[in-house]
Fold this protein.
Amino acid sequence: MPAAPDDTTPDPTIAELIAARPHLRLHAMDGLVMEDVPLNRVADAVGTPTWVYSAGALRTRYRALTTALRDAGLDAHAHYAVKANDHLAILALLGREGAGADVVSEGELRRARAAGIPAARIVYSGVGKTERELRLALTEDIGQINIESAEELRMLSALAASMGRTARVAPRINPDVDAGTHDKISTGRAGDKFGVPWADAAALYAEAARLPGIEPVGLATHIGSQIMDLAPYGAAFARIAELVRVLRDQGHTVRVVDCGGGLGIPYRNQPGPGPEALAGAIKAAFHNLDVRVALEPGRWLVGPAGVLLASVILQKQTAGTRFVVLDAAMNDLVRPAMYEAWHGIVPVSAAAAVAPVSPCDIVGPVCETGDTFARDRLLPMLSPGMRIAILDAGAYGAVMSSPYNARPRAAEVLIDGAAWTVVRPRQTHEALWADEIMPA
Ligand SMILES: *Cc1c(COP(=O)(O)O)cnc(C)c1O
């Protein structure tokens, strides 16, 4: 098990953070550059806060993942977990690379289709799909519906039969393993709300095989997010493989194992498993079962490909602490407030990136103490107007943002080589209340 960074592991330096991210580099004149575009140029044109994504990094990561799966000899297909970043441009880019989609709501299903992802490559997950959502999934004839309870299975059967459709179904199994990740993103323990208990799985599969409108095609699992240790994957896959054998012995057809998502990324440059290690764990569990493998990666594909660009409003000294107040806040990037998440923070200016550092707290202007991006972070002196980039903000960033404190949604930019596009303009203040209605 790789050592997880703890409070005693020193933070990576600014230079180490940049060096570990191939789509970023520091240019002596232009400062921090993503692919071939200086981030200062983006900020000059569209202001801050702004999300900036690297199309090149997205393609490189998707190809690295699929290559690792292919090299392991697996018949594997990636269904990008739309919830990590649901921008149409990102869905379309990954769709063109061959990715399918893993969706958890009608909105995500519609987004994936609007971005051109074929219905056959869409998997529908989630613990509470409404009848309306299931109806849409059946109308679109999507590839697979992962059901999470007997109640949902029966509802889907009745609906499919009434529509004259057949739903390809994979029960999501709760393997009762602890993914060793943050409590709020652990999903595979017996007490978590997700999935069918392992002990009930065979009976449920048998019921699925009997019910009208249902074709059970395999098994699914998803044990959590930001997983940096292979062991829980190995334990979960072993339990699923065992279930495949049990079901086949009982005469059932099991063609697919959906291994879910959850592969973590080294926010703090810490060691962790990459796609090769994950492919190895999948192969170890399933290699002699002749199954098609589905994966639902989200964070691993898009997290490192994005940064949140922000400007310093002011720097102030209070009770011995240097506070750097940004124009970005928890309403933009909620991960530090919600999960105590650590994000690398680097200055955009080349001079600042190599200047002497001292500890400071990086905060936003929202009226909550939780609006803190980092504590005791070693950064240079930062004067008003200087820019910083919050790294690895491509996943669970813009999608989780809100207009709290009447702060408009930040702009989004996609860089591709030397070209860059504003893929979502900054929301206007008027748009914040444009759909509000005054009673007569
Ligand atoms: C969130 C989720 C994913 C993606 O998780 P990542 O950690 O972003 O890879 C995949 N499958 C399901 C069912 C999910 O809920």
Summary: The two ends are 63 Å apart (CA to CA).
